[in-house]
Each structure stands twice: as structure tokens, then as C-alpha cells.
Amino acid sequence: ALVSARMAANVGEEEATVSLVDVLEEDEELENEASAVLGGSDSEKCSYPEGYVKRQALYACNTCTPKGGEPAGICLACSYKCHEGHDLFELYTKRNFRCDCGNDKFGEMECKLFADKEKVNSGNKYSHNFFGLYCTCDRPYPDPEDEVPDEMIQCIVCEDWFHGRHLGCVVPDCVELQEMICESCMNKTPFLWNYAAHIAVPPMTKVSPCKGEEDVKVEVENDEEEKKIKNENPRKMILTIYTGREESEEPEGSSEKGSCSGCRLREMKASGRSRTLQGAVFWLSAWRTKLCTCSDCKVLYTDAGVSFLMDEMDTVLAYENKGKSTMQAEQAGGAEGRDPLMSALNNLNRVQQLEIIHEYNDMKTELKDYLQRFAAEGKVVTPEDIRHFFEQQQSRKRRRANAGQYYCS
After folding, report:
1. How far is 177 from 212, CA to CA, in rounded Å?
2. CA 66 to CA 84: how far, in whole Å?
3. Does the pTM exceed 0.85?
4. What is the rounded distance in angstroms from the CA atom of residue 156 to the CA atom of residue 291?
5. Bridge partner list, 97
6. Is the preceding peptide bond at 142 cis, omega within 30 degrees of 0?
7. CA-to-CA distance for 49 and 55, rounded, in angstroms?
8. Which residues constitute the signal peptide according to the record (predicted)?
9. Cβ-contact 168, 279 below 8 angstroms
10. pLDDT digit of tens for each residue in the chain (409 aa)?
11. 135 exposed, middle or buried (CB, 10 Å; 0-12, 13-18, 19+)?
12. Helices 20-39 and 316-332 sit at what angle, rounded to 10 degrees?
């Protein structure tokens, strides 16, 4: 069904199609992303006993805590065990959160995995995300009333999600980018604008505000710098933006973190370099290592509530890499029994195992031969073709089953 849905989609009276390779690659990418997010959280145990978890996958239950009530978040395991079949909002990951499942926000409901919870988690932070609303436009995602295709990007400070067209700038097309801070959070931590002038992607464009953005106005900033960057190769461009120096230049003094002779932030302010104080800011990978960690700046981060910026392991990327490592370790360390298919096969005798493997290989060969005919004739595979193939498989299976019935005379 998934293949059929993605292989053909009706657009008016025309049928938009993609190749089977595209479908498989997209599914693999989504699977890897899901594994990275969920792999860092425990799917069997409620995370409540761990306290305010540094980062974890979270959900909100619209069935138990609908809009108008108290916002609440639940961990991965509780979404499976306590809220199965409920209307859930997937919140991706959030930092420093303790599972609410079964506390006072849920009325008479008790957590099936860990019932002994305090009435409320006073350290949790909530937003409109917990009611399935996102961005400055305060809309759901996906939005049935929004006909504009647009990706959503998460701010690393407030952890809200924003439509690309509502960020006050055009999203840079650069694989080196890892994190984004929305304009609102930048204004709440104004000292970050000084860093943005030195170690963030320079502002290139400006777009219209989130409501009534039919006309997109583009305005080029720093024209001379943009022309210079365009003439550089990609690696040199990234280095120049990231470090503020050319590749051949030697850094002044030691650049090791924590070993500066003075305050980096003070030096940046004194340089006189600035940028337009508007729009979201996109940061290059490892930008946090460029932040000053002197005693004065540490107090500044703490007072602004962004001390997590000094923690390189706070990033979603670090969390995803941990999830990937966990999944790979399980697969390499005899996790065969955890795979549903392998678990089912292990419960069968040797004859049944061979029969299933034989049937699977037959189906794989037949499907390959079936699709090769379309490729040879240059035809597009439609959902009807896929359904027809499996209907044929079911028909053959029934004929084989009937042929195998013998009766004593």
C-alpha cells in the first residue's frame, strides 16, 4: 500500500509518478531517520525514573489532554503501552523533559509502566506543539488547508517547528548546515547576534511575514561579500564564513576551546563586524565549539537560559548518532532475536523455516521478473499493476493449497 500510494498520486486528472528506486531510497531514508530518533529512547520502559532526560523522543496525546486542558508530554514507551490507539502528536525530540504519563494532567488514568509519579513535573517546558500546533502561524502539520509545499525546521532554542517560508529569510541550501535559531529566540539572547556576524551564514535574503505571504520580496544583503563568496570553491566558502579567514591564513594565537587569552565575545564586539538583526540564523556544523567559555560568558548563557549551547552533546545530531550506534550495536551483537521476522522463524521447526524461505525467494524472483517486463517496454508501474501482481500471487497460493488436499477413498 505504501509503494502504491507513493508511486502514483493524482494531481487533477494527471498521474504523477516516481520510480521504484526513488520509493525505496525515500523509505530507507525515513527508516534511518526514525531509527536514529527512536533508537536513542527506550521503547519498553517509562523514562520517568531517569528524571529530566537530557534529550528524548516525545509525544502528546490529544485523546487524553486535548486543547483547552493542561499540556502534557509522554515518552516513547508510554506512547506504545499506555496510549495505543489514541490520537498522538509526534513532537520529535525535546531536551530536559520528564514523562507526564499518568500524573494529575491525565485525570483518573494511571501509567501502566510506572504509576508512582509526582502530581506534576514543574521542570518541564511546554508550548503549542503539545496541542499539535507549530510555527508563528500556529497551524497543525500537516495542514489540510495549506496548499503550499514547505519543509519545517526546528529551532534549537525554543524547539518549536517553523515553515521555511515563515523564518524571515530564505533557507540556505548547504549540506554543512546543522542548526537554526529563530528570530524570536535570537532577540531574547541578543549577544548571539554578535556570534552570528562571525560564524553563521551571512543573511542573503528577506521574505515576507508569515501571514499573507503571497508576494515574496527578495532583498540581497552584503552584495560585495556575496559576489566574493560566489567566486570561491565550496570548501573555501565554508571556511571563510565559518572562521572569518582564508584557508591559507594562520589563526592568530591558540584556537583551542577554553584556551583564549581573552573573551571571544568581547573581541567579536570590538571588531565592529555586524549583520542585519532580523530573520532566523543558520549555523554551520560544529559552530558551538566557537562560542566563548570564559567565566563571564558562562554566566551570560545561564542567565539567558541557553547554557545547553556549551554542550556539544545536546544537539539533535549527537542524539541521532547515539541512536544509530545503539541500533548498529544491537544488530552486530546478536540482536537477531529482536527482529520480528527472525523471532517468528525461530519459533518454527526446520521444515517450516525452509518452506517460508522458499516461498519468499519465489515471490522475490517473480516480482523481479514482473517488473523487468515494464522496464523493458518503457512502461510506468501503476498501483493497479502492483495490486494485480499480488492478486495473482494469492490466486496461485489458493490453487496450490487446493491441489495439496488428498482424501482417502
Report:
1. 28
2. 16
3. no
4. 15
5. 53
6. yes
7. 14
8. none
9. yes
10. 233 333 333 434 444 555 555 666 666 666 666 766 777 788 899 999 999 999 999 999 999 999 999 999 999 999 999 999 999 999 999 999 999 999 999 999 999 999 999 999 999 999 999 999 999 999 998 899 998 888 899 999 999 999 999 999 988 886 556 799 999 999 999 999 999 999 998 886 544 444 434 333 333 344 444 444 444 444 444 444 444 444 444 444 444 444 445 899 999 999 999 899 999 999 988 899 999 999 999 999 999 999 999 998 898 888 888 877 776 776 666 544 455 555 566 666 656 666 777 777 778 788 888 888 887 777 778 888 888 888 887 776 655 545 444 444 3
11. buried
12. 100
The residue behind cell 570561491 is 232
Best CA proximity match to 202, nearest among 284, 287, 264, 312: 284
Cell digits of residue 204 = 542573503
